[in-house]
Each structure stands twice: as C-alpha cells, then as structure tokens.
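Hi Prof. W.,

I finally got the SAM-dependent methyltransferase TRM5/TYW2-type domain-containing protein prediction working! I wasn't sure whether to trim anything, so I left the full sequence exactly as given:
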Amino acid sequence: MSVPCVAVDRERGERVRSRLADADALDGDHEIAVEDDTIYIPVSGRDRVPADLADRIVERAAAARDRPTTPAEILGYEPSLERLGDIVIVDEDDDERAREIAEAVMASDVPCGTVLNRASPIEGELRVRRWDVLAGDGTETVHREYGHEFALDVAAVYFSPRLATERHRVVEQVEPGESAIDMFAGVGPYAVPMGTRGADVVACDLNERAVEFLRENAERNGVADAVTAVAGDVRDLATGPGSHADTADRLVMNLPHSADEFLDTAVALAGDDCVVHYYDIQHEDDPFGPGRRAIETAAGDAYAVEVETERVVRSYAPHEYNVCLDVRLTRVDG
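And this is what came out:
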C-alpha cells in the first residue's frame, strides 16, 4: 500500500521522527523503512507535517505494522492520556473511571512505570500540582526530548511535555558563544539544550528542588560546564556582587502568567543586542498587543524594540492563547 512518508538522511532519522511525533504526524499503522542512506517515516497526513519538512514527503509502499495492545483496545474507548518519561498521566474527575483507565494502561503494551491522575490545578508560586498515584509507585521519571534527558519529579516541579516543539524552536536559534539567561529555568528544558548549542547559560529558578534537578540534568547531558544553575529570585541576578546586568545576548521568559512583572529585570540583564523570548497568555482578540506594549514600556528610551516573531504556542483556555513574542532589544547610543 502506498502511503505518504517523510524521507530524510539516515543520521537525521531519530531527530525527525521525534519532531513528527511531537506534531502528532506519525502513522502508527505502517513500518518505518530504511533503504541505503535514507529513512522513510510514514505520516498520518501531509497537513500535519511541519512546514520545513513538507518538501521531503514522498509516496511509498510501506508494510503494515503489527500494532501492540493499546489501552483503547482494552477499554473500548480512547482515553485521554499524556506521556512523561515512563509516567502516564490521566486527567479524569471520576475516580472510578480514572482507575479503570490506569488498569488498562498497565495491562497494555504501553511502556509505563506509573499512572497518575491530576488531583489539583497548578498551584502556588512554584507552579506545582498534587497527584493521585493510580498504579505503580512514585512521581519521579526521566523524560527524553530532542536528544536530551531530563530527570524530574512531577510532584515537586513544573514541566509540560506539550511545549517540546516550542522549546526546540527557540533552542535552534541559539548560536555558539552566546550569553543566555533562562529567567525561570525549571529543570532545564531550555537551558540544557542551549548549553549543548554552545551558549554560556545562566539558569535561575525560585524552586530549589527544580534547581537540584537542573544541575543533575546539566551533568546528565554533558553541559555542566556551560550551565550555571542559580536557586533564588531572578531579580537578584541584576544587582549586587556577581551581577549579570548588561550581559545577556538571549533571555528566555517562560512564565506566561506573570512574566510582565519581570520585564524591568529583563531589560537590566540585556546586553547591547539581546533577543527576548517572552511568553504570555492573552485573549484571542489581542494576543500579542499587551506583551508588545509591556516590553516597549520597560525598554523605554534605552533600547529600540523590534518584534521579530509573534507566535501562538497553543490554546490555553476558551478564547485565550499561550503566545510567544521573540523581541530584539538594541541599545540606543547616548
């Protein structure tokens, strides 16, 4: 049977397969094939393939894949599940239904050590939530993303696997030798890959447990020398002994509910030419305007502000978007 496949060089195969998986574009019904130095990855639809890979789509005969037993086959319906390392996350208000799903997950061929159900919304200054352990034991795992490994404890830190594609988009812009500051670094999903790209990274977070994982993850991925992990308030990076004021070539501000409260600090940390990745949550009527105006106000007369990219990352709530503005700050002489 002929199906659409993305054809790429063999050495790029795993990287491209991960990107297609993040885009929900993989065709699980057909086998990946290798011929000479080319790997052919079946996709579920041309419209789901990232734009920069669209010219790599070819029609090709592909063997049918023996499908493993899935939770849906056991349950008779498709449950809503999210994978994070060897943890499967359920989001069910009905405890009986949640436990039914957990039993099916553990009985299926899904690689899984623990099944969790969300027991609270994200809460508090550290943005963590409570969990019900439905099967297995513990809330720690190792998550793999674009060739990197991140140890974490979902009960102690904030981490969203749904942002993998967005993180990769930002990291791909990093040049060797840059001075980068991740202002709300968590366990390092921006900071560690930026270090791999050759940047000198300062990564700060208020959550001390997250910073412990960040240091572990820098070691785990071989960039401990490139990533300086700091536990504390990011405002302190711009003042006092050891200040990083006026040094950053790139700033990541992934704290979408309140990043605007730290824009004065971002401006203080920015060097003469600095790209700021500013995350925000706004109404669909004007998703980018409030962030742009807040950045312009904080920059004042000190910097020229150029918005290079306005991007909707994902829907956050009805009529609300999680967005990113890539903004270049260029210091004004005089």
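The first strand starts at residue 2 and ends at 9. Does that look reasonable to you?

Thanks,
D.
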